[in-house]
Amino acid sequence: MIKPQVFADHDAVSQRAAQWLVEGLREKPNALLCLATGATPVQTYQRLAERRAAEPALISRCHVLNLDEWGSLAMDDPAACGYSLRTTLVAPLGLADRYLEFDGQAVDPQAECARVGGWLKLHGPIDLCVLGLGLNGHLGFNEPAESLQPHAHVAELSQASLAHAMLRERAVRPSYGFTLGMADLMQSRRVMLLVTGAAKQESLRRTLSGRITTQFPASLLQLHPDVTLLCDKAALS
Ligand code: GLP
Questions:
Q1: CA of 166, closest atom in ligand 1
Q2: In this structure, what CATH number is given to the domain that contains residue 124?
Q3: How many CB atoms lie within 10 A of CB 30?
Q4: How many angstroms does the Cα of residue 34 sit away from the middle of ligand 1?
Q5: Of the residues 15, 23, 106, 205, which has the maximum number of CB atoms within 10 A of its CB?
């Protein structure tokens, strides 16, 4: 049973989340990090990046993998997941040569998934996996469905994903996404799920309800042996 750790607000969650990453990296400096984007973890990554001056060795050996990407978006599109992670964490920490992301504009999307899957096979399993919670329970772009996919794949996007704030400015919405699969996430040694804001109340309730269903992918985290769930008071109904 996952027991959420509840904090006063988003800032406090971000502070603790950054600390979780710091502790994980101290324990295993050559860790593989898998990082979600979206609004929730941005401040966590900024706080981690701020640690560089005080503790440069902390991030000198780790690898970073971006969890998911919007299909058809250019890598330098500000709405792209990779763009977000590169600007908040990868560039400030000088991690470019130890970082991998899906190319949203890959000509052959299946081959792109095979490329990322192959890289994960080489560098994995994931040691520290930071996840955000989709309003519909998605993790990455593992969307609610009758069955879920284990590894990197091209995903059909749900209405909830297409309504995501990252795409707000875009006239043309992507019709598909790239994401690591549920087995990739479940095989992570440690997972941290971040949930903040009143809009996530129902999603958090379903994550913790005890009912495990592919129609709400985050509920599968209840089967994982090492999940840290950090939330703020607003998200906890
Ligand atoms: C997006 C991304 C996920 C992200 C989630 C939550 O669609 N595909 O990687 O974790 O939805 O986003 P937010 O933190 O903005 O609520």
A1: 15
A2: 3.40.50.1360
A3: 12
A4: 14
A5: 106
